[in-house]
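Team,

Forwarding the record for the chain on the shared tracking sheet. I've put the sequence and predicted structure together so nobody has to dig through attachments.
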Amino acid sequence: MQIVYSDKKTGKTGQAQVPKDREAQLTGKLIGDIVEGAVAGLDGFKLKITGMSDNAGSPSRKEIDGIRKTKSLISYGVGMRVRGKGYRARKLVRGNSVGPDTAQINTVIEQFGSKTQEEIFKPKEKKE
């Protein structure tokens, strides 16, 4: 499982891999919950879950309870590209809970910890 964290003020993002033994601490958390950053190696940080996707790429919607996958009739928001006024479609989306099929969790940093911004937002190294 991967956690993508971002800073609202600067717009910078970073990624961290969650070890297999710590994934159980995230299971059952909902979109909007605040989790400890220590799960992803960010000691002292508080992360707010803003969204997630599963191993097939299906996004999660806040309105759907649980970890189930469903084809919902939606007209806007996560999982839908706006095609025009009044357009609706059935799209495959996942519920608002972290489950065993969750591959990526998107978060926003609510409280910073002991590490500096340079340490947590490392620039990508270019390959030659």
